[in-house]
Amino acid sequence: MPYFTRLILFLFCLMVLVESRKPKRKQWTGQVEMPKPSHLYKKNLDVTKIRKGKPQQLLRVDEHDFSMRPAFGGPAIPVGVDVQVESLDSISEVDMDFTMTLYLRHYWKDERLAFSSASNKSMTFDGRLVKKIWVPDVFFVHSKRSFTHDTTTDNIMLRVFPDGHVLYSMRITVTAMCNMDFSHFPLDSQTCSLELESYAYTDEDLMLYWKNGDESLKTDEKISLSQFLIQKFHTTSRLAFYSSTGWYNRLYINFTLRRHIFFFLLQTYFPATLMVMLSWVSFWIDRRAVPARVSLGITTVLTMTTIITGVNASMPRVSYVKAVDIYLWVSFVFVFLSVLEYAAVNYLTTVQERKERKLREKFPCMCGMLHSKTMILDGSYSESEANSLAGYPRSHILTEEERQDKIVVHLGLSGEANAARKKGLLKGQMGFRIFQNTHAIDKYSRLIFPASYIFFNLIYWSVFS
């Protein structure tokens, strides 16, 4: 019996062992399992992986002191520079500066960054490596504001070649000073410069140069400005001396801008010219229409003042005269002289009337004839009105014989003044009928003012164009 029990236990254990070694059946899911490609199982060697033991770095950054320049203590390290101008954003006459966005690239060789490569390929890094190695300390001379773009990450690229050559590129926007000369504004051309220089290293330690000469500066063909035409981009280089530190290599990006004149023709020159021409209208208005001529003169003067103020508000406060100032102030003088012309006409007319009034009081018996003669020459009254004003009733019209007798007596009493009037009557009787109620100053002003202004415009545009 014990033997039989041991046999049963042995068989049971054997069945359990056999059942556990059988493969389990997978549950059917309706999907066919595709075989995996064999190349996915092949693992590529990760060169950046830090393995156990002593780590092996691709760039031996920690083995060198990168606070020193390459070849420290030896000859100056050459650093080539090239620039690609992306955009010329704005030109400000008030602040006398410009804003430019560009790609700035540096080229140099640092043997401390050399590495072995079977394929002789370069390695590219972002801005995080820049803080660990030596890079040129180039800055913008006379810059007011500048920054490196950081969207979506810092726009910095570092490319290292196996032999130690380095390419360092940045995308920068800089606002720099531009010394402008506004003596010919707005018919002017401006030349601005963006200057690059090492801040700490003199020409004995760092030699800054344009990598490919004039080909080192490239611009986008789509660059344009609303007020300027970009005529020329070119590069230059020279040495800059500081009395306390020494000589430094300085690179220049020069560009020439010519201002578009059409905007200023519409906004400044045409309105000023129209105001001057409008002031001439007063020469054809009756000299006795005081409100009309005075209001017209004051309106043109105030309008010219507004134009001058508006132009100067958008310009720097320079201590010299600009071309637009000459044109506007000469136009203002013409408008102001038209107001003074009417003041002279009104004054002389008042003096003339006062003299005639005194003559009538001095010769009461002849005042009627004098007034009648004056009205006939002036051409503003008819013969019946003149006889009525002279003391004769309208029904009593002087005959031709009586009128001649009265005129002869009147001329004999009035002396030299009436002799001049008699001469004017004989020579310019038709002229007085054409220019009725017109003073001689008005007649001359109609010709002198336009002729003088046209002559001024011819000289102005020939000199400043």
TrEMBL record:
Keywords: Cell membrane, Chloride, Chloride channel, Disulfide bond, Glycoprotein, Ion channel, Ion transport, Membrane, Postsynaptic cell membrane, Signal, Synapse, Transmembrane, Transmembrane helix, Transport. The keyword Transport applies. Residues 1-20 form the signal peptide. GO terms for cellular component: chloride channel complex; postsynaptic membrane. GO terms for molecular function: chloride channel activity; extracellular ligand-gated monoatomic ion channel activity; GABA-A receptor activity. Its main location: membrane. The keyword Ligase does not apply. It catalyses: chloride(in) = chloride(out). CDD domains: LGIC_ECD_GABAAR_rho, LGIC_TM_GABAAR_rho. InterPro entries: GABAA/Glycine_rcpt, GABAAa_rho2_rcpt, GABAAa_rho_rcpt, Neur_chan_lig-bd, Neur_chan_lig-bd_sf, Neur_channel, Neuro-gated_channel_TM_sf, Neuro_actylchol_rec. Residues 62-260 form the Neurotransmitter-gated ion-channel ligand-binding domain. The chain crosses the membrane at residues 261-282, 294-314, 326-348, 447-464. Residues 268-461 form the Neurotransmitter-gated ion-channel transmembrane domain. It is a multi-pass membrane protein. It is found in: Postsynaptic cell membrane. Belongs to the ligand-gated ion channel (TC 1.A.9) family. This is GABA(C) receptor. It comes from Colobus angolensis palliatus.
